[in-house]
């Protein structure tokens, strides 16, 4: 991190570090070594003062130069490390926010799916009750039809025994067949309705299976997100 000014000790420490690496301590090299701080004219003036020290100015010992260099390097390392820590913390905060937003979205979708599944289940229960009632009516009609068929057979047998009542029995027989036809028609209509209801139940079963698969996948995704958030939290605490 650049400072507002430089002094002779800074230039001397930078030049000593460059010379220690076997490099030419030029003005540009010294300025770069000090973190691009200070003007070239100031660095040049300070280098001239270092090259021509006055008798009253004691020469800085090598140990002091090395100590100054070590202090500068330590300060630069601390600054760089803090910058890296700040950048890592910012990335971690952004990733945490993204994960939290994704988890909230998944939870909203899961709640919506649960509500839709509950509505489908209620609707399916109503349709099932309707189907059961229709099947009950169908069984009653079938029993009634069997009774009427048996009555028709009984009437035919009586026709053979009672020639005197043939006209009345024929009328009863015709009436019985008419009722049978009507019942057959109602029975066919009931069967058709039952078949349609069965088809709707099959479609509901397929939809329920799809919903169950979606719920399973959503739960797996939610678990993965929670595990990822836990890992991220562990990393932050670590």
Write the layout of secondary structure elements.
Blueprint: H1 8-20, H2 27-33, H3 40-51, H4 62-161, H5 166-237
Helix pairs in contact: 1-2, 1-4, 4-5
Structure write-up:
The protein is mainly alpha-helical and 238 residues long. The chain folds into two domains: 8-89, no CATH class; 96-237, Helix Hairpins (Orthogonal Bundle), CATH 1.10.287. Helices cover 86% and strands 0% of the residues. It contains five helices and no strands. The protein has helices spanning 8-20, 27-33, 40-51, 62-161, 166-237. Helix 1 (8-20) crosses helix 4 (62-161).
By CATH, the architecture of the largest domain is named Orthogonal Bundle
CATH class of the largest domain: Mainly Alpha
Oligomeric assembly? single chain
What's the CATH topology name of the largest domain? Helix Hairpins
Order of helices and strands: HHHHH
**What count of helical segments does DSSP give?**
5
Radius of gyration: 49 Å
Helix content: over 70%
Distance, first to last CA: 28 Å
- The biggest beta sheet, please? none
Low-confidence stretches: none
The number of strands is 0
Short description:
This protein has 238 residues and is an all-alpha fold. It has helices at residues 8-20, 27-33, 40-51, 62-161, 166-237.
Primary descriptors:
Helix Hairpins; 5 helices; mainly alpha; 2 domains; 86% helix; single chain; 238 residues; 0% strand
């Amino acid at each position: 991190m650049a400072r507002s000014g430089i002094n002779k000790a800074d230039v001397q420490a930078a030049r000593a570090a460059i010379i220690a690496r076997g490099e030419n301590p030029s003005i540009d090299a010294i300025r770069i070594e000090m973190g691009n701080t200070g003007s070239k004219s100031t660095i040049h003036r300070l280098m001239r003062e270092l090259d021509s020290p006055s008798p009253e100015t004691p020469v800085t010992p090598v140990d002091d130069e090395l100590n100054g260099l070590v202090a500068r390097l330590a300060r630069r390392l601390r600054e760089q490390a803090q910058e890296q820590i700040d950048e890592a913390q910012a990335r971690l905060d952004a990733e945490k926010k993204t994960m939290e937003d994704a988890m909230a979205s998944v939870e909203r979708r899961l709640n919506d799916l649960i509500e839709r599944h509950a509505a489908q289940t209620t609707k399916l229960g109503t349709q099932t009750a309707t189907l059961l009632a229709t099947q009950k009516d169908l069984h009653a009609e079938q029993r009634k039809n069997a009774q009427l068929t048996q009555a028709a057979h009984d009437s035919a047998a009586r026709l053979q025994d009672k020639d005197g009542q043939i006209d009345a029995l024929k009328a009863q027989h015709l009436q019985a067949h008419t009722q049978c036809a009507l019942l057959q028609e109602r029975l066919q209509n009931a069967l058709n309705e039952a078949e349609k209801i069965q088809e709707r139940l099959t479609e509901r079963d397929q939809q329920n299976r799809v919903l169950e698969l979606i719920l399973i996948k959503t739960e797996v995704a939610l678990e993965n997100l929670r595990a990822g958030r836990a890992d991220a939290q562990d990393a932050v605490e670590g």
